[in-house]
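Reopening closed ticket. The problem is back. First fold of the pair:
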Amino acid sequence: MEANKIRLTKEKETYLATLYGKALDAAVENPILGDRFAAEAVARIDYDFKALKLPSGGEISLPMRARHFDQWTRAFLAANPESTVLHLGCGLDTRVYRIDPGPKVRWFDIDFPDVIALREQLYPEREGYRRIGSSVTDLSWLDAIPGDTPVLVIAEGLVMYLHEQDGTALFRRITEQFPSGQIAFDGYSGAMVRLVSRLATVRGAKVELVWGVDDPHQLEKQVPRLHLAESVEFLTLPELVSRLSRNWFSKAMAGALGRMPFYRNLVRHLRYEF
């Protein structure tokens, strides 16, 4: 092992798939996200990444998902140059470096303490940036964060792992603490939650998804200040379909599936305002 390589414990391997998907994308000729920070992190970790079971097409869908949330983040920061960003369940994502927010932005990455410890080994400090080691549903971490600016909450790849009452309590607390803001996350339908959990069990992976969002307007009732600003059917995004279609048959299949509401609603990117 090279002297400066970071060795992982078994439990931390679960955070690597999304990072690896972005690193693979960074290496191709026409990347989606072009996340060189992810590629550099993968190069520094002592691990056989080829042994990872990436979801089929993950080297396309993962950077595509991240790019969409990056676009929403940039739009919010352009409109609110003095603001707070809460990146919930950040994992090993390098969004703060990709976005490179301005000097009046306070950016917080929040995840379990072991994830934050790994981030501290992999990524540098930067002005206006703080890492918080905590479960996102233990709301005491919010006590240390000033609620005096608009806030953007990004919860990419997180909400489906939360119990609904914990997630709504978290979002309620945030809408009470800040004067205004946005909450953005990818919502899986109930069918998608069940499907992914079953497939994971078959593969022997420990994945337990619990919160399915069949009606995005339901959250408006549970968290009264929120209103749905945008709902994007992720699986039918033209560029995603085009890149995943290997041949005429898969393209035709994607077209047929894309006409079915059940399929279109499996994964939605949801943006709420308050």
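Second fold of the pair, where the issue appears:
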Amino acid sequence: MEIPVTGFVFHADDSDPLHSHQLFITSWDGVPIHVHQFRGITSFDAGHRHQYAGTTEPAPSGIPHTHRYFTVTSVDDGHRHQVSGVTGPAIPLPNGGHYHEFRGTTSVSGVNPHTHQYSGQTSL
């Protein structure tokens, strides 16, 4: 079974001899797709907090949807945590576009095993 996919490859320059190209898929089976950026700072637990940032997985545009997300936190207090989950549904904006809310608990990590809470809103 073949699924039509459209997109483009982004090439910045040739300054790095071991460079790679970024592939941006713009539609899947005829439906436009999009992603959102997300970032934040975890709760303060076990004497520290972590920063995190990432990009959601693609989802179709123009229909009710959510996005899966996954990233790892900054290294603080000698360790990092995984941040992953599924955003809430799209929240429409009055002038068009939308964003998603997300929240969760990080993976367990650290010499003194612990978790952190996180929450936020994706980019538009």
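Update: turned out to be a display glitch only; the data is intact. The chain has a mean pLDDT of 89. Residues 83 and 106 are 5 Å apart (CA to CA). Please close again.
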